[in-house]
Inverse folding.
């Protein structure tokens, strides 16, 4: 990180570095994305329902932001919502997922974004299972899955740990 890219380090309650990537880091992260990943993560797109590669993922582990590697959801909170997208009831850490009002397409929804890199993940709805009552409806292409016990993706070199 260059002098002009330095940020004050921000830590989540669970110990992860939430400092946004600097300009050159962001360029490198975005260069690693496929065209479909760019459409969803950077342009706030949505993948087609029932097509995502992580919809049927049932192994123990963690679902991380595809762009920056921040852990967003644990497999223990994943549930079958019938909507065609992976659904989760709670994030790994509430500070890892930002909620942003989305009034596109004539609807009022709550968009979810990665708190570190600000990439679009999906939306959250108030129709999930107890105890949260929330359904985080997330695009598969916006996530990477890390099986339990394996190293988390660390494209920013922050050494944040294992799943």
């Amino acid at each position: 990180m260059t002098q002009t890219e330095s940020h004050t380090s921000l830590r989540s309650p669970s110990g992860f570095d939430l400092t946004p990537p600097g300009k050159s880091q962001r360029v490198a992260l975005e260069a690693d994305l496929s065209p479909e990943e760019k459409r969803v993560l950077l342009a706030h797109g949505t993948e087609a329902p029932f097509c995502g590669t992580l919809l049927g993922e049932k192994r123990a582990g963690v679902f991380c932001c595809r762009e920056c590697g921040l852990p967003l959801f644990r497999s223990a909170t994943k549930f079958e919502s019938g909507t065609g997208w992976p659904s989760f009831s709670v994030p790994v850490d509430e500070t890892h997922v930002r909620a942003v009002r989305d009034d596109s397409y004539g609807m009022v929804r709550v968009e979810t974004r990665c708190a570190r890199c600000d990439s679009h993940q999906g939306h959250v709805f108030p129709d999930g299972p107890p105890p949260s009552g929330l359904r985080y409806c997330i695009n598969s292409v916006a996530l990477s899955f890390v099986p339990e016990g394996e190293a988390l993706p660390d494209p920013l070199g922050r050494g944040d740990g294992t799943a």
About this structure: Confidence is low (pLDDT under 50) at residues 1-7. The radius of gyration is 15 Å.
